Automatic annotation (TrEMBL):
Pfam families: GalKase_gal_bdg, GHMP_kinases_C, GHMP_kinases_N. Substrate binds at residues 34-37, 225. Mg(2+) binds at residues 129, 161. Its main location: cytoplasm. The gene is galK. The keyword Electron transport does not apply. This is Galactokinase. It comes from Streptomyces formicae. The record marks 28 as: Transition state stabilizer. Pathway: Carbohydrate metabolism; galactose metabolism. Residues 94-179 form the GHMP kinase N-terminal domain. The lineage of its organism: Bacteria, Bacillati, Actinomycetota, Actinomycetes, Kitasatosporales.
Length: 384
């Protein structure tokens, strides 16, 4: 985490007055349930120790000033009554979008000064954007005493990203950043946003979850996300349900037989089986069989690679190498076409597996990956 006192000092230097407070919000990895959020299904993210830390002060004159220590650009100054969706405001669109979404929902936000620093890698599929939105939403909720709940803040943050920034993401990332708790994975029902904190203390089991950030982002990703979502909607329509979440796993065979489009059939199979894998993994975790979730993770990868087709050679190599080197299971996580993979390994073997993956990437001529452990960390909170 970026040091809280440093961010507060930078704020004071920048704006000439002290912040009213400092807040943080984490990035996340998703253990299982990919693209299921936009099908009103189930997901299971956990918060990372990597966070966006924001020092913020309240203003009442309608001015919004935004600055990031991580971007080489001056303070962005905006008027809150002139905020326009999709106006290509660069990075500032994320926090400005939150102000816009709060105001559009009728919440009295009068302006703010904000300065942030982040340790969430950007564009690595670890949701730096959601962390940025949620930290802004939480700070404004406190400063203007809006009284909104965590799920409400997450939904408004999602709305900022969808309608203001223009990214058609689901609600998982914002819910994870807002609602995760230390030592737990978040079992989230993306239909009614009900949550359950599932104990996920890998160290207590002698295990480790490694994140392999491939540091690649293939172009294909942007169009593919919308295409997959549209394909899922087409599948739901063809099956006469509002969302694919309503196709029971037990009836998957029948459902697939009714679909004529080969591609839509693959998409449906991925979504319905991934929802089932979320349930299966929860059953195993509840039974204390953490090692037992490994095969379901690897199955989830195969489903994303072969049915949903959003993997890429780097992610496949990370997964295959890890499994050959003794991981219990592995999968790509996030939107695909690059970003990160997750490996479940014996803690004592973490170094060996990491070296194997690094060696395999070097041998293939790929960019060296960044490998680090994912420890289930706290969700967004006020630091000072
Ligand atoms: P991800 O959420 O997977 O990291 P996105 O493309 O959704 O990737 O969001 C990344 C964008 O979020 C960046 O391009 C930038 O606009 C914004 N962002 C993330 N972190 C920061 C930061 N520390 N400072 C400024 N902008 C940031
Ligand atoms: Mg994002």
């Amino acid at each position: 985490m970026a040091p809280v006192s440093e961010v507060a000092e930078q704020f004071t230097e920048l704006y000439g007055h002290a912040p009213d407070g400092v807040w943080s919000a984490p990035g996340r990895v998703n253990l299982i349930g990919e693209y299921t959020d936009v099908n009103e299904g189930f997901v299971m993210p956990l918060a990372l120790p990597h966070t966006v830390v924001a020092a913020v002060s309240r203003r009442t004159d309608g001015v919004l000033r935004l600055h990031s220590a991580d971007i080489d650009a001056p303070v962005v100054e905006l008027r809150i009554d002139e905020l326009t969706p999709l106006s290509d405001g660069g990075w500032a669109a994320y926090p400005a979008g939150v102000v816009w979404a709060l105001r559009a929902a009728g919440h009295p936000v009068g302006g703010a000064d904000l300065h942030l620093a982040s340790t969430v890698p950007t564009g690595a599929g670890l949701s730096s954007s959601a962390a940025l939105e949620v930290v802004t939403a939480l700070a404004l909720n406190d400063l203007f005493e809006l009284g909104l709940s965590r799920p409400e803040l997450a939904v408004l943050s999602q709305r900022a990203e969808n309608a203001f920034v223009g990214v058609p993401c689901g609600v998982m990332d914002q819910m994870a950043s807002a609602c995760c708790t230390e030592g737990h994975a978040l079992h989230l029902d993306c239909r009614d946003l009900s949550i359950r904190q599932v104990p996920f203390d890998l160290a207590a089991h002698g295990l480790r979850l490694l994140v392999v950030d491939t540091r690649v982002k293939h172009e294909l990703g942007d169009g593919a996300y919308a295409e997959r979502r549209a394909g899922c909607e087409e599948g739901a329509r063809a099956l006469g349900v509002s969302h694919l979440r309503d196709v029971p796993y037990a009836e998957l065979g029948d459902a697939l037989a009714r679909l004529t489009d080969e591609k839509v059939r693959r998409y449906v199979r991925h979504i319905v089986t991934d929802d089932e894998r979320v349930e299966r993994i929860i059953g195993l975790l509840d039974a204390g069989d953490v090692r037992g979730i490994g095969p379901a993770l690897t199955e989830g990868h195969a489903s994303l690679r072969d049915d949903f087709r959003i993997s890429c050679p780097e992610l496949d190599l990370a997964v295959e190498t890890a499994n050959t080197a003794g991981a219990y299971g592995a999968r790509m996580t996030g939107g695909g076409f690059g970003g990160s993979a997750l490996l479940l390994v014996e803690a004592a073997e973490a170094e060996t597996v990491t070296k194997s993956v690094e060696a395999a990437f070097a041998a293939a001529g790929y960019t060296a990956p960044r490998v680090f452990p994912a420890v289930a960390s706290p969700g967004a909170r006020r630091e000072v």
